[in-house]
Specification:
By secondary structure, this protein is an alpha/beta fold. The protein folds into two domains: 150 residues, 3-Layer(aba) Sandwich (Rossmann fold), CATH 3.40.50; 175 residues, L-2-Hydroxyisocaproate Dehydrogenase, Chain A, domain 2 (Alpha-Beta Complex). A six-stranded parallel beta sheet has the order 3-2-1-4-5-6. A three-stranded antiparallel beta sheet has the order 7-10-11. Helix 6 packs across helix 8 and helix 7 packs across helix 8. It is globular and about 55 Å long.
């Protein structure tokens, strides 16, 4: 039996903190499996190239069996030439005094050329995950500049929000994360995101399932206590977890973001199995989200394609939150259009 062909994986911002945490997991086989060889393509700006070169030396020293080769470049076209998987990590953070329009314009200057380079040179099966914030709108910009690549190949990462939600639920219920499934993040990867437990399932050690709201009510005392906990503790903490980590750690979450990127791409390529997860993909109009917006949905991966889970009942309270998040995405879309970054 012949060995599988190497998969070319491009990581932008490869010299940064998230890139550092991400590259070793990819090379170890955690993302695509230990038997799939990977060619790493590290794309950086000139100021970050030495950090990327140092990371490459460490990757060599790990002697990962799955690591086929490492290339480092500052050239966007070379960075995406033949790539099968593109992880767009590098982005312009919001600086002091920057308005939202300034932030979007700065990131448009990054993601528009990257989208064009993916369109020109990436492999026919390319899969793109945007990690750099504002992730949903950056993915929208990149996709708009890659007209020959199906829009559903461009995704934005809400798996970190999804994982944070699972972790908070597991801590509250005092059970392993693996016992919980079918939690959803809707909307934008921002403070308006909507963590939704409505259809969540908890399976106990004997294999007996019950709904997540029932399990929470048993711990918190009543359905009313569950609603108060969701509104006052759970949703705000998941949405603001990044700021909490900055306050405690002194820098932004890097390892957890890298782990979420690995989870997202692993499930996209290898499948989600019996449950769903959360990912931001182009809307097809499901759940009233404007077609073309890149919004987070409950998704399954089948045959290496993210499919939106259909037919879920959405309560009025959750729908109101989703509507708010979608308005924010519309505003961002309209702003990048008004700035001439997309048509």
């Amino acid at each position: 039996m012949s060995a599988p062909s190497p998969v070319t994986v491009t990581v932008t911002g490869a010299g940064g903190q998230i890139g550092y945490a991400l590259l070793f997991r990819i090379a170890s086989g955690a993302m695509l499996g230990p038997d799939t060889p990977v060619r790493l393509r590290l794309l950086e700006i000139p100021a970050g190239i030495r950090a990327a070169e140092g990371t490459a030396l460490e990757l060599q020293d790990c002697a990962f069996p799955a690591l086929d080769s490492i290339d480092i470049t500052t050239d966007v076209s070379a960075g995406f030439d033949g790539t099968n998987i593109a992880l767009l990590v590098g982005a312009r953070p919001r600086g002091p005094g920057m308005e939202r329009g300034d932030l979007l314009q700065a990131n448009g200057a990054i993601f528009a050329p990257q989208g064009a380079a993916i369109n020109a040179g990436a492999a026919d099966d390319v899969k793109v995950l945007v990690v750099g914030n504002p992730a949903n709108t950056n993915a929208f910009i990149a996709s708009a500049h890659a007209p020959d690549v199906p829009a559903e190949r461009f995704t934005a990462m809400t798996r970190l929000d999804h994982n944070r939600a699972l972790a908070q639920l597991a801590l509250t219920l005092q059970i392993p994360v693996r016992s919980i499934c079918n939690v959803t993040i809707w909307g934008n990867h921002s403070a308006t995101q909507v963590p939704d437990i409505t259809h969540g399932i908890v399976t106990d050690s004997s294999g007996v399932p019950r709904t997540l709201p029932e399990a929470l009510a048993a711990v918190l005392g009543s359905p009313g206590a569950v609603e108060a906990w969701l509104d006052e503790t759970f949703i705000p903490r998941v949405a603001k977890r990044g700021a909490e980590i900055i306050e405690v750690r002194g820098s932004s979450s890097a390892a957890s973001a890298a782990a979420a990127a690995v989870d997202h791409m692993h499930d996209w390529v290898l499948g989600t199995g019996a449950s769903w997860t959360s990912a931001a993909r182009v809307s097809d109009g499901s759940y009233g989200v404007d077609p073309g917006l890149i919004s987070s949905f409950p998704v399954r991966s089948n045959n290496q394609a993210w499919e939106i889970e259909q037919g879920l009942a959405v309560s009025p309270a959750v729908q109101a939150r989703i509507d708010r998040s979608i308005r924010e995405l519309r505003d961002e879309r309209d702003m990048v259009r008004s700035l001439g970054m997309v048509r």
